[in-house]
Amino acid sequence: MKNFQQNLQKLEAADTQVLGVSMDSPFANKAFADQIGVTFPLLSDWGGDVTHKYGIYVDKYKAARRVNFLIGKDGKILETQVDKEAIDPTKIVAACERHKVSR
Amino acid sequence: MKCNRRLLISFCTAAILSAATPLLSAQAKAAEPMSLKVGQDAPDFKLQYFDGTDLKDVSLSQYRGKKNVVLAFYVFAFTGG
After folding, report:
1. Which of A26, A35, A52, B37 is the most buried (most CB within 10 A)?
2. Across the interface, do A69 and B41 touch by the CB < 8 Å criterion?
3. B69·A19 Cβ contact <8 A
4. Which residues between 6 and 35 in chain A have a beta carbon less than 8 angstroms from any beta carbon of chain B?
5. Dihedral sign, CA of B3, B9, B12, B17?
6. What structural domains does chain A harbor?
7. How buried is A8 (Cβ within 10 angstroms: 0-12 exposed, 13-18 middle, 19+ buried)?
8. How far apart are the C-alpha atoms of B42 and B39, rounded to whole Å?
9. Would you say the pTM of this structure is higher than 0.90?
Protein backbone atom coordinates (compact mmCIF):
# COMPACT_ATOMS: atom_id res chain seq x y z
CA MET A 1 0.00 0.00 0.00
CA LYS A 2 2.95 2.26 0.68
CA ASN A 3 3.92 1.94 -2.96
CA PHE A 4 0.59 3.35 -4.00
CA GLN A 5 0.95 6.19 -1.54
CA GLN A 6 4.29 7.09 -3.10
CA ASN A 7 2.63 7.26 -6.50
CA LEU A 8 -0.62 8.83 -5.34
CA GLN A 9 0.00 12.23 -6.90
CA LYS A 10 0.64 10.73 -10.31
CA LEU A 11 -2.43 8.55 -10.02
CA GLU A 12 -4.62 11.42 -8.93
CA ALA A 13 -3.27 13.53 -11.75
CA ALA A 14 -4.43 10.76 -14.07
CA ASP A 15 -7.99 10.97 -12.69
CA THR A 16 -7.63 7.84 -10.63
CA GLN A 17 -8.97 7.02 -7.19
CA VAL A 18 -6.94 4.47 -5.23
CA LEU A 19 -8.84 2.19 -2.86
CA GLY A 20 -7.18 -0.49 -0.77
CA VAL A 21 -9.36 -3.45 0.17
CA SER A 22 -8.82 -6.19 2.72
CA MET A 23 -10.87 -8.42 4.97
CA ASP A 24 -9.65 -6.62 8.10
CA SER A 25 -12.01 -4.53 10.22
CA PRO A 26 -12.33 -0.81 9.38
CA PHE A 27 -10.56 0.04 12.63
CA ALA A 28 -7.61 -2.26 12.01
CA ASN A 29 -7.32 -0.77 8.54
CA LYS A 30 -7.35 2.76 9.92
CA ALA A 31 -4.55 1.90 12.34
CA PHE A 32 -2.65 0.28 9.47
CA ALA A 33 -3.16 3.36 7.27
CA ASP A 34 -1.88 5.63 10.04
CA GLN A 35 1.11 3.43 10.70
CA ILE A 36 2.30 3.39 7.09
CA GLY A 37 1.13 6.90 6.22
CA VAL A 38 -1.55 5.96 3.70
CA THR A 39 -4.08 8.75 3.00
CA PHE A 40 -6.42 6.95 0.58
CA PRO A 41 -9.27 4.81 1.99
CA LEU A 42 -8.51 1.26 3.06
CA LEU A 43 -11.88 -0.43 2.74
CA SER A 44 -12.99 -3.21 5.00
CA ASP A 45 -14.46 -6.25 3.30
CA TRP A 46 -15.39 -7.77 6.63
CA GLY A 47 -16.79 -11.22 5.86
CA GLY A 48 -15.25 -11.27 2.40
CA ASP A 49 -18.35 -10.79 0.23
CA VAL A 50 -16.58 -8.50 -2.23
CA THR A 51 -13.41 -10.60 -2.20
CA HIS A 52 -15.57 -13.59 -3.16
CA LYS A 53 -17.44 -11.57 -5.78
CA TYR A 54 -14.12 -10.65 -7.39
CA GLY A 55 -13.07 -14.31 -7.36
CA ILE A 56 -9.88 -13.79 -5.39
CA TYR A 57 -10.65 -15.36 -2.01
CA VAL A 58 -7.87 -17.73 -0.95
CA ASP A 59 -9.14 -20.56 1.24
CA LYS A 60 -5.72 -21.33 2.65
CA TYR A 61 -5.24 -17.85 4.10
CA LYS A 62 -8.93 -17.07 4.69
CA ALA A 63 -8.16 -13.77 3.01
CA ALA A 64 -7.92 -12.02 -0.33
CA ARG A 65 -5.23 -12.68 -2.88
CA ARG A 66 -2.88 -9.78 -3.63
CA VAL A 67 -4.51 -8.34 -6.75
CA ASN A 68 -4.87 -4.91 -8.34
CA PHE A 69 -7.78 -4.09 -10.59
CA LEU A 70 -7.67 -0.95 -12.68
CA ILE A 71 -11.26 -0.03 -13.47
CA GLY A 72 -12.11 2.58 -16.08
CA LYS A 73 -14.65 5.34 -15.81
CA ASP A 74 -17.09 3.13 -17.70
CA GLY A 75 -16.84 0.48 -14.96
CA LYS A 76 -14.91 -2.00 -17.09
CA ILE A 77 -11.73 -3.72 -15.99
CA LEU A 78 -8.76 -2.23 -17.85
CA GLU A 79 -5.88 -4.11 -16.24
CA THR A 80 -5.23 -6.68 -13.55
CA GLN A 81 -2.07 -7.55 -11.68
CA VAL A 82 -1.78 -10.62 -9.55
CA ASP A 83 0.38 -11.72 -6.61
CA LYS A 84 3.97 -10.49 -6.74
CA GLU A 85 3.50 -8.20 -9.71
CA ALA A 86 0.67 -6.47 -7.82
CA ILE A 87 3.12 -5.00 -5.32
CA ASP A 88 4.85 -2.74 -7.81
CA PRO A 89 2.43 0.03 -8.89
CA THR A 90 4.58 1.26 -11.78
CA LYS A 91 2.48 -0.61 -14.33
CA ILE A 92 -0.76 0.75 -12.91
CA VAL A 93 0.62 4.28 -12.98
CA ALA A 94 1.74 3.84 -16.58
CA ALA A 95 -1.63 2.34 -17.51
CA CYS A 96 -3.54 5.23 -15.89
CA GLU A 97 -1.47 7.76 -17.73
CA ARG A 98 -1.94 5.85 -20.97
CA HIS A 99 -5.70 5.63 -20.52
CA LYS A 100 -5.86 9.28 -19.65
CA VAL A 101 -4.26 10.14 -22.96
CA SER A 102 -6.52 7.79 -24.93
CA ARG A 103 -9.73 9.08 -23.42
CA MET B 1 25.46 -57.02 -1.08
CA LYS B 2 25.71 -53.99 1.18
CA CYS B 3 26.90 -51.96 -1.75
CA ASN B 4 23.92 -53.03 -3.80
CA ARG B 5 21.49 -52.00 -1.12
CA ARG B 6 22.99 -48.57 -0.90
CA LEU B 7 22.75 -48.28 -4.64
CA LEU B 8 19.12 -49.31 -4.51
CA ILE B 9 18.35 -46.75 -1.83
CA SER B 10 19.98 -43.92 -3.70
CA PHE B 11 18.21 -45.01 -6.88
CA CYS B 12 14.86 -45.00 -5.10
CA THR B 13 15.52 -41.60 -3.58
CA ALA B 14 16.40 -40.18 -6.96
CA ALA B 15 13.29 -41.72 -8.49
CA ILE B 16 11.04 -40.26 -5.81
CA LEU B 17 12.65 -36.84 -6.08
CA SER B 18 12.41 -36.69 -9.84
CA ALA B 19 8.79 -37.78 -9.69
CA ALA B 20 8.00 -35.15 -7.11
CA THR B 21 9.85 -32.27 -8.75
CA PRO B 22 7.34 -31.53 -11.51
CA LEU B 23 4.59 -31.64 -8.92
CA LEU B 24 6.36 -29.14 -6.71
CA SER B 25 7.22 -26.73 -9.46
CA ALA B 26 3.69 -26.97 -10.86
CA GLN B 27 2.38 -26.02 -7.46
CA ALA B 28 4.73 -23.06 -7.16
CA LYS B 29 3.77 -21.83 -10.62
CA ALA B 30 0.07 -22.43 -10.16
CA ALA B 31 -0.96 -18.81 -10.53
CA GLU B 32 -4.62 -19.63 -10.70
CA PRO B 33 -6.37 -17.85 -13.52
CA MET B 34 -8.55 -14.96 -12.54
CA SER B 35 -12.26 -15.36 -13.00
CA LEU B 36 -12.70 -11.66 -13.80
CA LYS B 37 -11.07 -10.71 -17.07
CA VAL B 38 -9.96 -7.47 -18.65
CA GLY B 39 -12.89 -5.94 -20.53
CA GLN B 40 -15.54 -7.27 -18.17
CA ASP B 41 -17.63 -5.08 -15.92
CA ALA B 42 -16.18 -4.79 -12.43
CA PRO B 43 -18.85 -5.94 -9.96
CA ASP B 44 -20.26 -3.04 -7.96
CA PHE B 45 -19.83 -3.03 -4.21
CA LYS B 46 -20.40 -0.87 -1.16
CA LEU B 47 -17.80 -1.04 1.58
CA GLN B 48 -16.81 1.08 4.54
CA TYR B 49 -13.68 2.62 5.93
CA PHE B 50 -13.03 4.45 9.18
CA ASP B 51 -11.75 8.02 8.75
CA GLY B 52 -10.93 8.49 12.44
CA THR B 53 -14.37 9.82 13.35
CA ASP B 54 -16.97 8.03 11.28
CA LEU B 55 -17.50 4.99 9.14
CA LYS B 56 -17.74 6.16 5.55
CA ASP B 57 -19.44 4.32 2.69
CA VAL B 58 -17.64 3.89 -0.60
CA SER B 59 -19.19 2.28 -3.65
CA LEU B 60 -17.62 1.56 -6.98
CA SER B 61 -20.56 3.11 -8.84
CA GLN B 62 -19.96 6.52 -7.25
CA TYR B 63 -16.88 6.91 -9.48
CA ARG B 64 -18.63 5.92 -12.70
CA GLY B 65 -18.07 8.50 -15.41
CA LYS B 66 -15.82 10.49 -13.07
CA LYS B 67 -12.67 8.62 -12.18
CA ASN B 68 -10.73 5.48 -12.85
CA VAL B 69 -10.44 3.29 -9.78
CA VAL B 70 -7.53 1.20 -8.64
CA LEU B 71 -8.81 -1.54 -6.37
CA ALA B 72 -5.78 -2.85 -4.54
CA PHE B 73 -6.70 -5.99 -2.63
CA TYR B 74 -4.16 -6.93 0.00
CA VAL B 75 -3.92 -9.96 2.23
CA PHE B 76 -3.80 -8.52 5.76
CA ALA B 77 -3.26 -5.16 7.43
CA PHE B 78 0.16 -4.77 9.05
CA THR B 79 1.92 -6.95 6.51
CA GLY B 80 4.17 -5.93 3.64
CA GLY B 81 3.07 -5.24 0.10
Report:
1. A26
2. no
3. yes
4. 11, 14-24, 26-32, 35
5. negative
6. 2-102 (3.40.30.10)
7. middle
8. 9
9. no
